[in-house]
Amino acid sequence: MIGVLTLISGSILSFPHVLTCDGYSFQFLASCFRTNCPTLSAVADPKQRYEQLLSLAKRLEAFPEAEKTSENKVAGCVSQVYITADLVDGKVKYQGDSDSQLVKGLVALLIKGLNGSSPAEILQVKPDFIQATGLNVSLTPSRANGFYNIFRMMQQKAYQFNNQPDS
């Protein structure tokens, strides 16, 4: 089975490795690509990808200073990265921040892709989608590892909500 993204520009991208995960995984991230970063995976120039991430970072909701705690800090990132999550009506709402604008853009990308999903849906997302963005070839190994660690922390926070009543 091959997943296809139709970009706003009209071009089509296929990601056969993404749909080897279950259908939910592709559904959320496809939604993110279509509505928030439709050309990210189509851009060959790493500088232009970085510019798109910086643009996402600028639009990220302000993060409360009081939430910058060790419990919300992402381990394994060179930059300071913080993620919070709330469960509202059975859906997870994330907030995040970083002291690096580029990493803040990565946080924004993940938030836009995962916000509004149930904890169970988020837990079904596999990290294969990182290759679909094309970021794996644009990021330094330490930033790519940090991106993965941010994603994993978001899943851990979703896991804590799984089988719990809404807050």
What does the largest sheet look like?
Answer: 2 strands, antiparallel
How would the global form be characterised?
globular
SSE topology string:
EEHHEEHHHHH
| Proportion of residues in helical segments | 40-55%
CATH topology: Sufe protein. Chain: A
Radius of gyration: 15 Å
User: How would you classify the helix and strand content by structural class?
Assistant: alpha+beta
Unreliable stretches, pLDDT < 50, 5 or more residues? 1-26
Number of helices: 7
Strand content: 5-15%
By CATH reckoning, the class would read Alpha Beta
For the record, the count of structural domains works out to 1
For this entry, give a set of tags.
167 residues; alpha+beta; Sufe protein. Chain: A; two-stranded antiparallel sheet; 7 helices; disordered N terminus
General description of the model:
The protein is an alpha+beta fold. The chain has a single domain (3-161), classed as Sufe protein. Chain: A (Alpha-Beta Complex), CATH 3.90.1010. It is 46% helix and 14% strand. The chain contains 7 helices and 4 strands, in the order ββααββααααα. It has helices spanning 23-35, 46-58, 101-114, 119-124, 129-133, 135-138, 141-161, and strands at 3-6, 12-15, 81-88, 91-98. The strands form 2 sheets. The chain has a two-stranded antiparallel sheet. Strands 3-4 form a two-stranded antiparallel sheet. Helix 1 (23-35) crosses helix 3, helix 2 packs across helix 3 and helix 3 (101-114) runs parallel beside helix 7 (141-161). The relative contact order is 0.18. The model is unreliable at 1-26 (pLDDT under 50).
